[in-house]
Amino acid sequence: MINLRKLFIMMVASLVMAGLSNSVAFAQDPDNGKVLWEEQIFQCMRCHGAEAQGMWAGPLAGTERTAEELIAQVRTPRRFMPTFSEAQVSDEQLTDIHAYLSSLTAPADFTPADAGLSEDAPEGQKLIVQFRCVACHSETGPVSNFTDRGEAPTADAVIAQLRNPRQRMPSFSPDQVSDAEATIIAEFLISQVSPATLPQSGGANSTALSIALLLIGGGLLFLAGLLLRRFATQ
Questions:
Q1: How far, in Å, CA of 114 to CA of 122, rounded?
Q2: Does 34 reside within a domain?
Q3: Are residues 172 and 73 in the same domain?
Q4: Which of 98, 118, 185, 228 could form a disulfide with 67 if both were Cys (CB 3.0 to 4.6 A apart)?
Q5: Are 219 and 125 found together in one domain?
Q6: Runs of H (alpha helix) within 39-122
Q7: 202 in the same domain as 178
Q8: Across the strands, what pairs with 171?
Q9: Distance (Å, rounded) from C-alpha 41 to C-alpha 70?
Q10: pLDDT tens, 116-169?
């Protein structure tokens, strides 16, 4: 007769061993983690420092978090940290990064970076520092990212970029940066832009229409002149 208790214990032990084996095999490349940490596309060091000693965000060197806890923070972050999707950084890459961070020595103390803003700095600029946008975009914010595309940094454009960002920028939820706060940031960004560099209303289509109307108007004037001359000679 099969001993169900013994069979159950063996099954649980097998599952535990398999899980431990997979976990160990999945997170054992600190050298690759170092490479990933230093790659700008992952942006980790921009906030946490070149050696994870802390910068705009707190230190991660010598972290006591597990790899699973680190992954959870990246996927569903607390406070001001934005969300990185698995398409941006995979779980395997994060476990390698965790292995690298665990190999580092934790700093003795930590003082966050200071943007040096004055008390009367624009509210939008203060929010750029508060939400750590400054780590990637400096204290002036991502104004050039918009103007280089010929796009005005309107409230709608800023909100769209925060919620569904282009390229490898992580996303910010409304709980992290509200639409109202994004609007204040947009007001600061647009205050830095010369009106001459902003896209004009109507764009290329408006210009083409203006040219067409001028040509039509010129043609009508030419025909009117011919008709008048003809009547004058009769």
A1: 16
A2: yes
A3: no
A4: 98
A5: yes
A6: 44-48, 67-75, 91-103
A7: yes
A8: 83
A9: 18
A10: 999 999 999 999 999 999 999 999 999 999 999 899 999 999 999 999 998 789
Helix (H) or strand (E) holding 233: helix 203-233
Instruction: List pLDDT tens digits, range 14-42.
Output: 444 444 444 444 547 999 999 999 997 88
How far, in Å, CA of 62 to CA of 104, rounded? 5
| Residue type for position 183 | T
According to DSSP, residue 171 is labeled B
- Which residues on neighbouring strands pair with residue 83, listed in sequence order? 171
Q: Give, as one character, the DSSP assignment of residue 78.
A: -
Q: Is 87 domain-assigned?
A: yes
Are 47 and 131 in contact, with CB atoms under 8 Å apart? Answer: no
Q: Which of 98, 16, 94 is nearest to 65 (CA)?
A: 98
**Are 99 and 137 found together in one domain?**
no
Whether 89 and 153 map to the same domain: the answer is no
For 208, the domain range is 116-224
18 belongs to a structural domain: no
Least trusted range by pLDDT, from 9-13, 164-168, 186-190: 9-13
- Please give the single-letter amino acid code of residue 157: A
| DSSP code, position 195 | G
